[in-house]
Specification:
11 helices; 5-stranded mixed beta barrel; homodimer; alpha/beta
Chain lengths: 352, 352
């Protein structure tokens, strides 16, 4: 899944180049490229399917020339993850009705690659042998308020880290997050799912029939040259909803595999700061030349060759890309979304 | 005088476009253009002589196409104000040995244009009738530590605002500045001078003979086609020193005309902040689109079309131009000079 657009990293990420396409850590590879590379160990590149917004097609082709054109699914509208997943499952099912699918966001950080590969490999074996919807649950390391939590239930016989899911909990407040962690029963919802194509399509029919109905109309077209045309006409009619709401929180056959992946969804500047290497003053610099004095805890994230001279910034975000500059205390980053809306309404789309 | 380069407004001003060439107040005119416009009321444009560094010749021609080429004196090296003034005096003397000269910096702010014109007009009359070096002394409005101070002495008979100068005082500390002002005898040194060409050239001979000697060698060439060639060979050999040190602080025939011009030398971001119109939150924006929250007392000075989203900045400087960005508390602006040197030594001239 690589069609998302977010304003949380504005202006480091921009509408025309969202987070997944950025070289976030200055490694020379975008988060998407790193994600594809990571799963390439598990599956042949010919069996990696990308679902993105049609406006990002050229960027995908440029960043991932090794992915064949028929594996790039172009959404004509933004409809959250459920329609995306439903289409991809149909697309894959049409080619192999027995296929199992790993479904992954493309803009996350995973530091423990070996643990990831092992978990995905075991997870695939699980879904091939069980009619279940499996999600990876991350062992929490701190009471994060930015993540959803999954409560584990009864252990699956023969597995030491896979359990039935007892409940899902939306982003808690800090006090609640502390309580959840203290129980030892709650894990972060990674948004990484494993299932057979057949299983997830059945789940759509049962729990999200209004979505299933739209995509069932395409059954004659999936895997044919008419697939994209059908989608171009019909996709926009699907409800916009996440797979968590539409399926996972309702289904009975949901399992969680608890893992430690060195994972972050990089959903906030704070997460980016915490997962990035820091200089001696405790600052993170993304792609910029910094001369600083009395600065600490600050992220400097810049696109393009630039020198920054900074004095006296404690725990700030300084982000720039093209015609937009953000300077904001990290503790106030939740204000950015609204301010970006203000930018849009006062100065226009060109700055977003 | 428009040859100066300073790093105090880096990166809003850059080596290739220093302060005098910038549209500092977003009025559509650079400080230099405003200075020329201001003196055009007093003298014909054919009698305005510009002295600048040769590297700024093209910018001068572009900003001031109305100034004739022979009135643009190009210094082949930076030697502070004394050599600049000595050359200009010779250049003018060669055309009219009886000429009087107004000598002005080109990067100052003067809000009271009528008072300026009146003062300069009266000042010219004074120097035409007195063998004196006249400087404009600004009535101080606050105990500024960034200015030199001039102590007034005996009043000139027949004038209510012109006095012999008793002493010059270099930039004082705050306590000293308060004391100076309390006496009522001290005025800010504006760096605006009036004198006859003959008078200042005599002063150079008497008080700065080592400079006079170099420029006297050019007597056969001033006003001829060989003048610039002579300067290109000889200028670099002159000592580098300000006219204040070389002449004004030593000469006997120095006078001060005390004036109220709404004057600032715009020597600091603080001065820029104080003299600029502010928005409702008390911020100054130079050429940028600002969405701010909980910001005050801050200058946002940007070259190029840009949106800034800023949160939580109190009394800061945010300045950007091309490949350089500065973020610094206004109270720390004295640190910038050293940091710009660091930029130069670590990353090279291209960022200065």
């Amino acid at each position: 899944m690589c069609g998302g657009v977010g304003s949380r990293f504005w202006p480091f990420s921009r509408t025309n180049v969202p987070k997944q396409f950025l070289d976030f850590f200055g490694t020379g590879k975008s988060l998407l490229q790193m994600t594809v590379e990571r799963v390439s160990t598990l599956v042949d590149k010919d069996r990696i399917v990308l679902v993105t917004n049609e406006s990002y097609a050229d960027m995908i082709r440029q960043q991932l020339p090794e992915i064949k054109e028929s594996n790039i699914l172009l959404e004509p509208a933004r409809r959250n993850t459920a329609p995306c997943i439903c289409w991809a499952a149909h697309h894959i099912f049409a080619q192999d009705p027995e296929a199992s699918i790993m479904t992954l966001p493309s803009d996350h950080l995973i530091l423990k690659e070996m643990a990831f590969i092992k978990a995905m490999d075991e997870g695939m074996t699980f879904v091939e042998n069980n009619d279940g919807l499996l999600t990876l649950g991350i062992k929490p390391t701190s009471p994060e308020t930015g993540y959803g939590y999954i409560q584990k239930g009864m252990q699956v016989i023969g597995s030491d880290d896979t359990m039935k899911v007892k409940s899902f909990t939306e982003k808690p407040n800090l006090e609640m997050a502390k309580m959840l962690i203290a129980t030892g029963e709650f894990f972060w919802n990674s948004g990484i799912f494993l299932w057979r194509a057949k299983t997830i399509l059945e789940a759509f029919k049962k729990y999200a029939p209004e979505i299933a109905a739209h995509f069932d109309m395409g059954l004659p077209y999936y895997g044919t040259e008419k697939e994209q045309n059908f989608i171009n006409d019909e996709f926009v009619n699907s409800p916009s909803i996440s797979v968590d709401y539409a399926i996972m929180e309702k289904a009975e056959n949901v399992y969680v595999k608890t893992v430690d992946l060195g994972w972050s969804d990089l959903g906030t500047w704070k997460a980016l700061y915490e997962t990035s290497p820091k200089n001696i003053e405790g600052n993170v610099t993304q792609n910029c030349k910094l001369i600083s004095n009395d600065c600490s805890g600050t992220v400097f994230a810049i696109k393009g060759d630039k020198v920054i001279v900074a004095v006296g910034l404690k725990d700030y975000i300084v982000a720039e890309n093209g015609n937009a500059l953000l300077i904001c205390p990290m503790s106030e980053e939740q204000k950015v979304r609204q301010m970006v809306n203000d930018v849009k309404s006062r100065f226009g789309e060109d700055y977003i």
